[in-house]
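Data card: per-record layout.
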Amino acid sequence: MALERYLEIAERTGGPILELHAAPGWAAIPLARAGYRVVGVDMSGGPLHDFQEELDREDRDVGHRIHVFQDIATLKLADPDFPLAIAAYDDGPSRSEALGQVAAAAARHLAPGGVLALDVPDVANLLRFELEPVLKSAGLELTSMGGGSLVTATKR
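The structure for this 156-residue chain is written out next.
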């Protein structure tokens, strides 16, 4: 499961953590429960509204560790030095565009040497045709293909 791997990587890198495509909070909330500060970003208000409703049901301390923003494509946070960015990659019809947005947003906000952890369906196919060139063009270097569907890249 990607969540367990995200927690393992977070233990190595520390926080804060940037989660791209964060709605509905399936990773951000458990990471905040574990004590990490998480900034969640997504593209549309509907899923983020659902995320906020989930967050409202959480303990107050968890809620204070999560900040949610909209519009991954234009994201420019004041503190761009995250040691870890995570994303569950959506394998939808605009997957190349979504992957490019995730890689670009991660590259803009990761500290040098920071890690992007992607949960990617059909890793072998994406790696061959899209993943490595998209990561490279964003300034990220593919570093590992872990068990299951988890891929990591490091900011150069």
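Known properties of this structure: The helical segments are 2-13, 28-33, 45-56, 60-64, 95-109, 123-137. The two ends are 27 Å apart (CA to CA).

See the next section for split statistics.
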